Amino acid sequence: MLTASCILLTDQPCASADVSGGGLVCAVYGFDPKSAFFRGRPPAQAARTLSSWGVNAVFGGYQDPEVRKALRGHGIRIFAELGCFVGERYWRERPESRPVNDVGQRIAKVKWYAGVCPSQGWLRADIVKRARKLVSRYELDGVWLDFIRYPGHWEAPRPHLEQTCFCAACLRRFLKETGIETPEGLPVREKAHWILANKKDEWTRFKTGSIAGLVREVRRAVTAAKPGTMVGFFAVPWSRDERHGAVLEILGQDHRLLGGWADAVSPMTYHVLIARPASWISSAVSQISRDAGKPVWPVVFVGDQEHPLTAEGLKAAVEAALAPPSGGVILFSLGELERAGRLGEVAPLFETCRRRSGP
Ligand SMILES: [Zn+2]
User: How would you classify the pairing of strands 328-332 and 264-267?
Assistant: First the structure.
Protein backbone atom coordinates (compact mmCIF):
# COMPACT_ATOMS: atom_id res chain seq x y z
CA MET A 1 0.00 0.00 0.00
CA LEU A 2 1.32 3.40 -0.93
CA THR A 3 1.41 5.74 1.99
CA ALA A 4 2.20 9.40 2.08
CA SER A 5 4.64 8.94 4.92
CA CYS A 6 6.98 6.55 3.14
CA ILE A 7 7.26 8.94 0.24
CA LEU A 8 7.54 12.07 2.29
CA LEU A 9 9.77 10.94 5.08
CA THR A 10 12.28 8.68 3.43
CA ASP A 11 14.44 8.64 0.36
CA GLN A 12 13.49 5.08 -0.38
CA PRO A 13 11.16 4.18 -3.19
CA CYS A 14 7.94 2.62 -1.96
CA ALA A 15 5.77 -0.17 -3.19
CA SER A 16 2.79 1.17 -5.07
CA ALA A 17 -0.84 0.76 -4.27
CA ASP A 18 -2.82 -1.63 -6.42
CA VAL A 19 -3.27 0.73 -9.32
CA SER A 20 -4.60 -1.68 -11.89
CA GLY A 21 -8.19 -1.02 -10.88
CA GLY A 22 -8.71 -4.76 -11.08
CA GLY A 23 -8.58 -5.04 -14.86
CA LEU A 24 -6.96 -3.80 -18.02
CA VAL A 25 -6.74 -0.11 -18.74
CA CYS A 26 -8.38 0.65 -22.09
CA ALA A 27 -7.35 4.27 -22.57
CA VAL A 28 -7.44 6.94 -25.24
CA TYR A 29 -4.90 9.74 -25.32
CA GLY A 30 -5.99 13.20 -26.42
CA PHE A 31 -9.66 13.12 -25.47
CA ASP A 32 -11.01 16.60 -26.21
CA PRO A 33 -14.64 17.35 -25.37
CA LYS A 34 -14.41 20.33 -27.75
CA SER A 35 -13.31 18.32 -30.79
CA ALA A 36 -15.61 18.29 -33.81
CA PHE A 37 -17.03 14.90 -32.84
CA PHE A 38 -17.75 15.67 -29.18
CA ARG A 39 -18.58 19.39 -29.43
CA GLY A 40 -22.24 20.09 -28.74
CA ARG A 41 -22.81 16.75 -27.05
CA PRO A 42 -23.76 16.96 -23.37
CA PRO A 43 -20.95 15.58 -21.14
CA ALA A 44 -23.08 12.61 -20.11
CA GLN A 45 -23.57 11.64 -23.74
CA ALA A 46 -19.85 11.99 -24.52
CA ALA A 47 -19.00 9.81 -21.54
CA ARG A 48 -21.63 7.26 -22.52
CA THR A 49 -20.21 7.10 -26.03
CA LEU A 50 -16.67 6.57 -24.76
CA SER A 51 -17.86 3.92 -22.35
CA SER A 52 -19.80 2.14 -25.11
CA TRP A 53 -16.54 1.87 -27.07
CA GLY A 54 -14.89 0.20 -24.08
CA VAL A 55 -12.87 3.23 -22.97
CA ASN A 56 -12.25 3.16 -19.21
CA ALA A 57 -9.54 5.85 -19.02
CA VAL A 58 -8.79 9.09 -20.84
CA PHE A 59 -5.76 11.32 -21.09
CA GLY A 60 -7.07 14.86 -21.53
CA GLY A 61 -10.46 16.53 -21.28
CA TYR A 62 -10.17 17.12 -17.53
CA GLN A 63 -10.58 20.91 -17.35
CA ASP A 64 -14.39 21.00 -17.26
CA PRO A 65 -15.89 19.80 -13.95
CA GLU A 66 -19.07 18.66 -15.69
CA VAL A 67 -17.06 16.51 -18.06
CA ARG A 68 -15.08 15.03 -15.17
CA LYS A 69 -18.29 14.22 -13.34
CA ALA A 70 -19.78 12.56 -16.40
CA LEU A 71 -16.63 10.51 -17.07
CA ARG A 72 -16.50 9.34 -13.48
CA GLY A 73 -20.18 8.50 -13.62
CA HIS A 74 -19.29 6.01 -16.36
CA GLY A 75 -16.32 4.60 -14.50
CA ILE A 76 -13.79 6.35 -16.75
CA ARG A 77 -10.54 7.32 -15.06
CA ILE A 78 -8.95 10.69 -15.89
CA PHE A 79 -5.26 11.34 -16.47
CA ALA A 80 -3.18 14.34 -17.45
CA GLU A 81 0.04 14.49 -19.44
CA LEU A 82 2.73 16.82 -18.16
CA GLY A 83 5.49 17.77 -20.61
CA CYS A 84 8.89 18.17 -18.96
CA PHE A 85 12.08 18.82 -20.92
CA VAL A 86 10.71 19.96 -24.24
CA GLY A 87 9.63 23.16 -25.95
CA GLU A 88 11.15 25.63 -28.35
CA ARG A 89 9.61 28.48 -26.40
CA TYR A 90 12.06 27.75 -23.59
CA TRP A 91 14.92 28.15 -26.09
CA ARG A 92 13.53 31.58 -26.98
CA GLU A 93 12.68 32.74 -23.48
CA ARG A 94 15.65 31.19 -21.67
CA PRO A 95 18.40 30.57 -24.26
CA GLU A 96 20.56 28.93 -21.60
CA SER A 97 18.06 26.05 -21.53
CA ARG A 98 18.99 24.97 -25.06
CA PRO A 99 21.21 21.91 -24.54
CA VAL A 100 24.88 21.86 -25.50
CA ASN A 101 26.29 18.84 -27.33
CA ASP A 102 29.72 17.24 -27.08
CA VAL A 103 31.26 19.60 -29.61
CA GLY A 104 30.16 22.58 -27.59
CA GLN A 105 27.24 23.61 -29.80
CA ARG A 106 23.62 24.27 -28.95
CA ILE A 107 21.56 21.40 -30.37
CA ALA A 108 19.41 21.77 -33.47
CA LYS A 109 15.69 21.18 -33.65
CA VAL A 110 14.69 17.81 -35.13
CA LYS A 111 11.39 18.18 -36.99
CA TRP A 112 9.03 19.49 -34.26
CA TYR A 113 11.23 18.36 -31.38
CA ALA A 114 13.22 20.80 -29.26
CA GLY A 115 14.71 19.11 -26.20
CA VAL A 116 15.49 21.19 -23.13
CA CYS A 117 18.31 20.92 -20.58
CA PRO A 118 17.23 18.96 -17.48
CA SER A 119 19.55 20.90 -15.16
CA GLN A 120 17.65 24.19 -15.29
CA GLY A 121 16.57 24.70 -11.68
CA TRP A 122 13.74 27.09 -12.56
CA LEU A 123 12.30 24.53 -14.99
CA ARG A 124 12.51 21.65 -12.56
CA ALA A 125 10.73 23.76 -9.92
CA ASP A 126 8.10 24.74 -12.49
CA ILE A 127 7.42 21.11 -13.46
CA VAL A 128 6.88 20.16 -9.82
CA LYS A 129 4.62 23.18 -9.36
CA ARG A 130 2.59 22.30 -12.46
CA ALA A 131 2.17 18.72 -11.24
CA ARG A 132 0.93 19.92 -7.86
CA LYS A 133 -1.44 22.38 -9.48
CA LEU A 134 -2.86 19.77 -11.86
CA VAL A 135 -3.74 17.29 -9.14
CA SER A 136 -4.98 19.95 -6.73
CA ARG A 137 -7.26 21.58 -9.25
CA TYR A 138 -8.64 18.73 -11.35
CA GLU A 139 -9.23 15.64 -9.15
CA LEU A 140 -7.16 13.51 -11.46
CA ASP A 141 -6.49 9.80 -11.17
CA GLY A 142 -2.92 10.40 -12.26
CA VAL A 143 -0.29 12.57 -13.88
CA TRP A 144 1.98 11.14 -16.63
CA LEU A 145 5.35 12.77 -17.18
CA ASP A 146 6.34 13.20 -20.81
CA PHE A 147 9.75 14.09 -22.30
CA ILE A 148 11.27 13.04 -19.00
CA ARG A 149 14.73 12.56 -20.43
CA TYR A 150 17.79 14.20 -21.92
CA PRO A 151 17.36 15.31 -25.54
CA GLY A 152 16.94 12.76 -28.30
CA HIS A 153 14.43 12.46 -31.11
CA TRP A 154 14.18 8.68 -30.91
CA GLU A 155 11.01 8.15 -32.98
CA ALA A 156 12.74 7.20 -36.23
CA PRO A 157 14.25 4.00 -37.65
CA ARG A 158 17.69 5.63 -37.53
CA PRO A 159 17.50 8.35 -34.91
CA HIS A 160 20.05 11.11 -34.62
CA LEU A 161 21.57 10.66 -31.18
CA GLU A 162 24.11 12.95 -29.58
CA GLN A 163 25.60 13.35 -26.14
CA THR A 164 24.25 16.27 -24.13
CA CYS A 165 24.27 18.35 -22.07
CA PHE A 166 27.51 20.17 -21.44
CA CYS A 167 26.01 23.55 -20.60
CA ALA A 168 27.27 25.50 -17.61
CA ALA A 169 24.39 24.34 -15.40
CA CYS A 170 24.98 20.66 -16.17
CA LEU A 171 28.73 20.89 -15.65
CA ARG A 172 28.16 22.72 -12.36
CA ARG A 173 25.72 20.07 -11.13
CA PHE A 174 28.00 17.26 -12.28
CA LEU A 175 30.83 18.74 -10.22
CA LYS A 176 28.58 19.33 -7.22
CA GLU A 177 27.10 15.85 -7.22
CA THR A 178 30.15 13.78 -8.10
CA GLY A 179 33.05 15.96 -6.98
CA ILE A 180 34.60 15.34 -10.39
CA GLU A 181 36.32 18.42 -11.66
CA THR A 182 36.99 18.79 -15.35
CA PRO A 183 40.44 20.16 -16.18
CA GLU A 184 40.52 23.95 -15.87
CA GLY A 185 40.57 26.29 -18.80
CA LEU A 186 39.40 23.86 -21.47
CA PRO A 187 36.81 24.83 -24.04
CA VAL A 188 33.45 23.06 -23.65
CA ARG A 189 34.10 20.54 -26.43
CA GLU A 190 37.31 19.42 -24.74
CA LYS A 191 35.64 19.22 -21.34
CA ALA A 192 32.98 17.02 -22.92
CA HIS A 193 35.65 14.88 -24.56
CA TRP A 194 37.48 14.53 -21.24
CA ILE A 195 34.33 13.50 -19.37
CA LEU A 196 33.30 10.95 -22.00
CA ALA A 197 36.81 9.52 -22.21
CA ASN A 198 37.52 9.38 -18.46
CA LYS A 199 34.27 9.51 -16.49
CA LYS A 200 31.63 8.07 -18.75
CA ASP A 201 30.00 5.84 -16.11
CA GLU A 202 29.82 8.67 -13.60
CA TRP A 203 28.40 10.94 -16.31
CA THR A 204 25.69 8.38 -17.17
CA ARG A 205 24.81 7.90 -13.51
CA PHE A 206 24.62 11.66 -13.09
CA LYS A 207 22.22 11.93 -16.03
CA THR A 208 19.95 9.05 -15.01
CA GLY A 209 20.00 10.26 -11.40
CA SER A 210 19.01 13.73 -12.48
CA ILE A 211 15.99 12.46 -14.42
CA ALA A 212 14.96 10.05 -11.66
CA GLY A 213 15.39 12.84 -9.12
CA LEU A 214 12.72 14.89 -10.81
CA VAL A 215 10.29 11.96 -10.87
CA ARG A 216 10.92 11.57 -7.13
CA GLU A 217 10.22 15.27 -6.56
CA VAL A 218 7.00 15.12 -8.57
CA ARG A 219 6.00 11.94 -6.72
CA ARG A 220 6.42 13.66 -3.37
CA ALA A 221 4.59 16.81 -4.42
CA VAL A 222 1.68 14.86 -5.89
CA THR A 223 1.36 12.58 -2.89
CA ALA A 224 1.49 15.54 -0.51
CA ALA A 225 -1.17 17.42 -2.47
CA LYS A 226 -3.48 14.48 -3.25
CA PRO A 227 -2.56 11.16 -1.66
CA GLY A 228 -3.45 8.20 -3.85
CA THR A 229 -3.00 10.06 -7.15
CA MET A 230 -0.88 8.07 -9.56
CA VAL A 231 2.35 9.25 -11.13
CA GLY A 232 3.41 7.58 -14.36
CA PHE A 233 5.69 8.40 -17.24
CA PHE A 234 6.04 7.90 -20.96
CA ALA A 235 9.09 5.76 -21.57
CA VAL A 236 11.34 5.44 -24.59
CA PRO A 237 10.82 1.78 -25.50
CA TRP A 238 14.46 0.75 -25.81
CA SER A 239 16.16 -1.91 -23.75
CA ARG A 240 19.24 -1.02 -21.73
CA ASP A 241 21.71 -2.54 -24.16
CA GLU A 242 20.04 -1.45 -27.39
CA ARG A 243 21.91 1.11 -29.52
CA HIS A 244 24.96 0.86 -27.26
CA GLY A 245 22.97 1.68 -24.13
CA ALA A 246 21.54 4.91 -25.59
CA VAL A 247 18.47 4.97 -23.36
CA LEU A 248 20.80 5.35 -20.38
CA GLU A 249 23.86 7.08 -21.83
CA ILE A 250 22.18 9.48 -24.25
CA LEU A 251 18.65 9.89 -22.91
CA GLY A 252 19.38 9.42 -19.21
CA GLN A 253 16.20 7.39 -18.76
CA ASP A 254 16.77 4.44 -16.43
CA HIS A 255 13.54 2.50 -16.16
CA ARG A 256 14.81 0.59 -13.15
CA LEU A 257 15.38 3.81 -11.24
CA LEU A 258 12.21 5.47 -12.46
CA GLY A 259 10.12 2.44 -11.56
CA GLY A 260 11.02 3.16 -7.95
CA TRP A 261 9.05 6.38 -8.00
CA ALA A 262 6.32 5.80 -10.58
CA ASP A 263 3.13 3.80 -10.18
CA ALA A 264 2.97 2.72 -13.81
CA VAL A 265 5.02 3.05 -16.98
CA SER A 266 3.85 3.75 -20.51
CA PRO A 267 6.40 2.75 -23.14
CA MET A 268 5.79 4.62 -26.37
CA THR A 269 5.69 1.51 -28.52
CA TYR A 270 5.18 3.39 -31.80
CA HIS A 271 6.14 0.44 -33.99
CA VAL A 272 5.25 2.06 -37.33
CA LEU A 273 7.42 5.09 -36.61
CA ILE A 274 10.48 2.96 -35.98
CA ALA A 275 9.75 0.36 -38.64
CA ARG A 276 9.24 -2.63 -36.36
CA PRO A 277 6.60 -5.38 -36.53
CA ALA A 278 3.58 -5.35 -34.22
CA SER A 279 5.02 -8.38 -32.40
CA TRP A 280 7.90 -6.19 -31.18
CA ILE A 281 5.42 -4.31 -28.98
CA SER A 282 4.88 -7.25 -26.64
CA SER A 283 8.61 -7.87 -26.24
CA ALA A 284 9.15 -4.19 -25.42
CA VAL A 285 6.37 -4.40 -22.82
CA SER A 286 7.95 -7.47 -21.21
CA GLN A 287 11.35 -5.84 -21.13
CA ILE A 288 10.13 -2.66 -19.49
CA SER A 289 7.99 -4.60 -17.05
CA ARG A 290 11.08 -6.48 -15.89
CA ASP A 291 13.09 -3.28 -15.59
CA ALA A 292 10.52 -0.99 -13.96
CA GLY A 293 8.74 -3.62 -11.86
CA LYS A 294 5.50 -1.66 -12.17
CA PRO A 295 2.31 -2.02 -14.23
CA VAL A 296 2.94 -1.30 -17.91
CA TRP A 297 0.40 0.48 -20.06
CA PRO A 298 1.92 0.67 -23.55
CA VAL A 299 1.01 3.43 -25.96
CA VAL A 300 0.05 2.35 -29.47
CA PHE A 301 0.44 4.86 -32.28
CA VAL A 302 -2.60 4.65 -34.52
CA GLY A 303 -0.84 5.83 -37.68
CA ASP A 304 -1.02 9.08 -39.61
CA GLN A 305 -0.71 10.25 -43.21
CA GLU A 306 3.04 9.83 -43.21
CA HIS A 307 2.91 6.46 -41.42
CA PRO A 308 -0.35 4.82 -42.46
CA LEU A 309 -1.66 1.85 -40.57
CA THR A 310 -4.58 -0.27 -41.75
CA ALA A 311 -7.41 -1.24 -39.41
CA GLU A 312 -6.01 -4.80 -39.35
CA GLY A 313 -2.50 -3.54 -38.68
CA LEU A 314 -3.71 -1.37 -35.83
CA LYS A 315 -5.73 -4.24 -34.36
CA ALA A 316 -2.65 -6.47 -34.44
CA ALA A 317 -0.66 -3.76 -32.63
CA VAL A 318 -3.29 -3.38 -29.92
CA GLU A 319 -3.49 -7.15 -29.42
CA ALA A 320 0.31 -7.30 -29.10
CA ALA A 321 0.19 -4.44 -26.61
CA LEU A 322 -2.34 -6.33 -24.48
CA ALA A 323 -0.33 -9.53 -24.20
CA PRO A 324 0.76 -10.33 -20.63
CA PRO A 325 2.31 -8.78 -18.60
CA SER A 326 0.64 -5.69 -20.04
CA GLY A 327 -1.74 -3.79 -17.78
CA GLY A 328 -3.68 -2.28 -20.68
CA VAL A 329 -3.23 -0.05 -23.69
CA ILE A 330 -3.36 3.65 -24.55
CA LEU A 331 -4.36 4.67 -28.09
CA PHE A 332 -2.35 7.61 -29.40
CA SER A 333 -4.34 9.44 -30.28
CA LEU A 334 -8.10 9.83 -30.28
CA GLY A 335 -7.67 13.12 -32.16
CA GLU A 336 -5.77 11.38 -34.95
CA LEU A 337 -8.46 8.70 -35.28
CA GLU A 338 -11.09 11.44 -35.43
CA ARG A 339 -9.18 13.42 -38.08
CA ALA A 340 -8.84 10.27 -40.16
CA GLY A 341 -12.55 9.42 -39.80
CA ARG A 342 -11.65 6.22 -37.93
CA LEU A 343 -13.48 6.61 -34.61
CA GLY A 344 -15.57 3.60 -35.58
CA GLU A 345 -12.47 1.46 -35.05
CA VAL A 346 -12.16 2.21 -31.33
CA ALA A 347 -14.84 -0.24 -30.15
CA PRO A 348 -13.45 -3.21 -32.15
CA LEU A 349 -9.92 -2.30 -31.07
CA PHE A 350 -10.96 -2.42 -27.43
CA GLU A 351 -12.91 -5.65 -27.76
CA THR A 352 -10.22 -7.79 -26.11
CA CYS A 353 -9.40 -5.09 -23.63
CA ARG A 354 -13.05 -4.68 -22.67
CA ARG A 355 -13.54 -8.42 -22.27
CA ARG A 356 -10.49 -8.78 -20.06
CA SER A 357 -11.04 -5.62 -18.05
CA GLY A 358 -13.94 -7.22 -16.24
CA PRO A 359 -17.40 -5.88 -15.54
ZN1 LIG B 1 22.50 21.42 -19.52
Answer: unpaired
The CATH code of the domain that includes 266 is 3.20.20.80
The verdict on residue 53 lying in a domain is: yes
Instruction: Please check whether residue 16 lies inside any domain of the structure.
Output: no
In-domain check, residue 106: yes
Q: How many angstroms does the Cα of residue 150 sit away from the middle of ligand 1? A: 9
Range of the domain at 298: 4-10+23-356
User: Measured in angstroms, how far is the CA atom of residue 170 from the centroid of ligand 1?
Assistant: 4
Residue 200 C-alpha to ligand 1 middle, in angstroms?
16
Residues bordering ligand 1, an ion, CB closer than 5 Å: 117, 119, 165, 167, 170
pTM of the predicted protein model: 0.94
**Total number of domains in the chain:** 1
CA of 10 to the centre of ligand 1 (A): 28
DSSP 26-53: EEEE---TTSTTTTTS-HHHHHHHHHHH
User: Would you say how long the chain is, in residues?
Assistant: 359
CA distance linking residue 23 with residue 42, whole number of Å: 28
- Residue 244 in contact with residue 162, Cβ under 8 Å? no
**pLDDT tens digit sequence for 43-85:** 999 999 999 999 999 999 999 999 999 999 999 999 999 999 9
Closest CA to 343 of 67, 53, 114, 122: 53
Which is nearest to 85 in space by CA: 57, 113, 61?
Answer: 113
Helix (H, G, I), strand (E, B), or coil: what is residue 80? strand
Between CA 204 and CA 213 the distance in angstroms is 14
Q: Is 83 within a domain?
A: yes
| pLDDT tens-place string over residues 210-256 | 999 999 999 999 999 999 999 999 999 999 999 999 999 999 999 99
- C-alpha 94 – ligand 1 centre gap (Å): 12
SS3 233: strand
Q: Pick out the chain residues at pLDDT < 50.
A: 1-10, 13-20
